[in-house]
Amino acid sequence: MTHELITTPTTASVAGPVAAAVVDGLSERAFRDPHLPRFHFTSPGGWLNDPNGLSHWNGVYHLFYQYNPLAPAHHRIHWGHATSTDLVTWTDEPVALVPGTTGPDRDGCWSGVLVDDGGVPTLVYSGRHGERELPCVATGSPDLRHWAKDPGNPVIAAPPEGVDITAYRDHCVWREGAVWRQLVGSGIRGQGGTAFLYDSEDLRSWRYVGPLLTGDASRGVAGEPDWTGTMWECVDLFRVEDVDVLAFSAWDEGTTHHPLYWTGRYERDTFVPDALHRLDYGQAYFYAPQSTRDADGRRIMFGWLQEGRGEEATARAGWSGVMSLPRLVTLGPDGALAQRPVPELERLRRDHVATGAFEVGETPLSDAIRGDQLDLEVTLRLAPGATARLGVRETPDGAERTVVEITRDADAEGGGELRLRREHSSLDPDVDAGPRYGRIPFAPDGTVDLRVLVDHSALEIFAGGRALTARVYPTRPDEATGVSLTATGSVTCARLDAWHMAPIVDRPRPLWP
After folding, report:
1. Rounded to two decimals, what is the model's pTM?
2. Could you say which of 50, 105, 170, 372 is catalytic?
3. Is 50 a catalytic residue?
4. Domain positions in the chain
């Protein structure tokens, strides 16, 4: 039996009855949409979700992703592919995986990873057929542009016997000595989410070891959520300094989903957890994250920014889904992960505006600090009980505005809260306007560093090493460019630096590069 070679199909060959002109029009519609981010990575058009196969291969960053080039809807998923040498600008590559006409992935090539098998680039992904999602393998050319599916797919024929699972998909694969190890995201009904552990000598024949760790639906973390989900999606096991991290997206049908992670110790066939943390306070707005270690030894992470507007608006726009900015993940002084955008993104900064120290409320911000593609860095010092409010995407009349709010606990020894207020972010009643919030650390003198990146509808916030991601859709996007800084109580702005961010795309892109 020969391998099935994946070649880049034409629009007509995949669209069937869908007119090629209509499909091709997706990228033009997407590019015209004022809510399309300009310095975040997005697909050329259609649907984008989970980052996949994230890797730094021969000096090139490879970002694969879940992709439907035919419509902004989650249906018959392909693997899109983009490359970068600097984590800033990206080149669209040929689509890596296309659902088969027969076989275990005929209904979609779902999330997975890229590994180096003795110099052979190898994808391990979930093939979907009907309601079944099973591990499959594909091998690639040296430049990672052409892929052949293994004739033995699926390489695991069924989930573990005798276990009542809630779902079974997504993969984390690594080499441990002479043996490959794999985690498959799942859940045990009545208990909680889990990651099933397997090992193999050749990435094709796998032996089931057992659950690496099983959550407890009643066990939670301070604030939200108060559960760890009935199923763990997109599990990712990695080490930061001397701490092992088990990241996953807590999933439960009909419930808000959250990206979470355990810190602890990986000990051969089990994970001994120390503490459970929230990976991003934006909940499902930063979902299905995947990380890789690059050639410089850095842990780089991407996540999927879901939409917060209705299906009809998304269909009209011709696109859905944004990739987060690449994040540098390190270990914070409190033992939790600290996140910040990779420094390479600073290359996009233009038109720098800076202020000296001032008491918030006494000095208005410069009119030059405004826009819908911004990078804002602010160092604030708050008295106990004080609140600082950074407004972005504001219209002149204040009818639409999004507010990043930081409050220091009244107890000077405590930390504080980061809250995103979106009740006035849009006059459109159909967009999500719910708040997002979580705890952040402060320095002993009440100082906290805040960074806010505004990119049309995409908003990424970093405060004290914690992250909060969300989406906003002002109905007057050309006017919603104002920025303000106000306070309740005593707040000093030690510094404020603002930049306009250059776009990384200046024209529509082909759906099938």
Report:
1. 0.94
2. 50
3. yes
4. 4-330, 342-501
